[in-house]
Amino acid sequence: MRARYPLSLKIPLGVTAVGAACLAYSAGIEARSFRLRRVTVPVLPRGMRPLRVLQVSDIHMVGGQRKKQRWLQSLAGLRPDFVINTGDNLSDPEAVPEVLDALGPLMEFPGAYVFGSNDYYGPRLRNPARYLMEKTSGRHGLNGNPPVVGAVHNPWEGMRDAFDSAGWVGLSNTRGRIKLGGGEEIALTGLDDPHIKRDRYDEVAGGPEHDADLPLAVVHAPYLRVLDAFAADRYPLILAGHTHGGQLRVPFHGALVTNCDLDTDRARGLSHHEADGHRSYLHVSAGCGANRYTPFRFACPPEATLLTLVERP
């Protein structure tokens, strides 16, 4: 005989079942459903050929993530003109070799990178509700919160050395240039991670280098102070990551949090940012990973982005 439950029990049991099913889907299926997002951005000078830029971000590699490794390797088949890595490659101190294996085919192309907090420090178990609390209080990362104590230090130096040896340009509070196969020069200005207050804009201030074919700005976490500075200095395009696109999005509503002070409407994808009367394009990657302690994605599949840069109107 089938057990009968009063209505007062059926409702919470049903909610629990639906919640469990959503968690199982978000961790077991969607978090492994890798996608390529394609975006066109009109930022090039007149007469310049289109350029294809592959942005990878927030890999959060954990040992044994073979499907993610194979997918990242496969992106080399896109044959981009250059690659931008916007940080948070690690979620496991032992995963540096797997990151380098996954990105190895992409390191055959010109590229540049910045690091995020999870490149420097190992992940910590925390209550996911804290992201909502931090949004309410306006305190994110080390921006208004006390310094991290007892953090695990990742061996990021080996990853940096491998990127540099491949010819990728490190952009931690510095400028750099990429020369492409067609002879074009890209002038890049980058910052270290604002989420942990490593950004030093005064060291790169002054605006784009106008003798290059295209200037770009690169940062891991899209904090407003950084976006304001880049836009005021008239960079045509800013590339960032960090937000995971909200990671758990509500269908027909969008992201609930960004883990920084960027508004949730711009948690992923292409938008604009204005400061001092100047407007820049902003692209925020939703990334292709998640913290090992919160391996869930819902209505926000993991992604990389192929940006096709075309002439300005």
Shape: globular
Work out the helicity level.
10-25%
Main beta-sheet annotation = 6 strands, mixed
Physical arrangement of strands within the biggest beta sheet: 1-14-2-3-4-5
Distance between the termini: 71 Å
Sheet/helix structural class: alpha/beta
Order of helices and strands: HEEHEHEHHHEEEEHEEEEEE
Our estimate of the beta-strand percent is 15-25%
The strand count comes to 14
Which runs of at least 5 residues are low in confidence (pLDDT < 50)?
A: none
- Mean pLDDT comes to 92
Tally of DSSP helical segments? 7
- Specify Rg, calculated over alpha carbons: 20 Å
Structural overview:
The protein has 313 residues and is α/β, with parallel strands linked by helices. It is built from 7 helices and 14 strands. It is globular, with a radius of gyration of 20 Å. The model has no long low-confidence stretch (mean pLDDT 92).
Topology:
Blueprint: H1 7-28, E1 35-44, E2 51-56, H2 66-74, E3 82-85, H3 96-103, E4 111-113, H4 117-120, H5 129-137, H6 156-165, E5 169-170, E6 174-179, E7 185-190, E8 214-218, H7 224-232, E9 237-240, E10 249-250, E11 254-255, E12 269-275, E13 278-284, E14 303-311
Parallel strand pairs: 1-14, 2-3, 3-4, 4-5, 7-8, 8-9, 9-13
Antiparallel strand pairs: 2-14, 6-7, 10-11, 12-13
